Prior knowledge:
Layout: E1 20-22, E2 29-30, H1 36-55, H2 59-66, H3 70-77, H4 85-95
Antiparallel strand pairs: 1-2
Amino acid sequence: MQEWWEGPELRDDQVPCRYVAAGEWPNARLQVDAPLSAHYGQEVARRLKAAMDQQRISQRTLARLCAVAQATISRTLRGEVLPDLGTLAKLEAALGVDIYPTGLYRNTPSPTTPDRPQP
Length: 119
C-alpha cells in the first residue's frame, strides 16, 4: 500500500506560497489540496521568522553568521523556495533552534485520504 506522501505528484510541486488559499504567507490557510511540501515550507518559514524575531537578528546578519545568501533567507521566509538540507543545517546551527518540522506529515491531512489513521 502506497502512503499518500509517497506519490509521484510530489515531484511536480510548486513553490509553497503558490498554495495560499486565504491570508498572508506564512500564516495563511493553504489550499485543501496543497502538497505536503507546501506545509513543510510554511512551517519552516514560521519557525525561521520566529527564531529571528526572538533573537532580534536581521536577514543580513543571519546570512553572514551561517554563510547562506541573504536572498535565500528572504525567499525562504516568503515561501518562494524550499531550502535544501545544507541550508537548513546552517540556519539551525546559527540560530541554535530547530527549523525543520520533523514529523509534520503525521499531523497534515492528506488531500486524497483525509481520514487516515494516526500512528
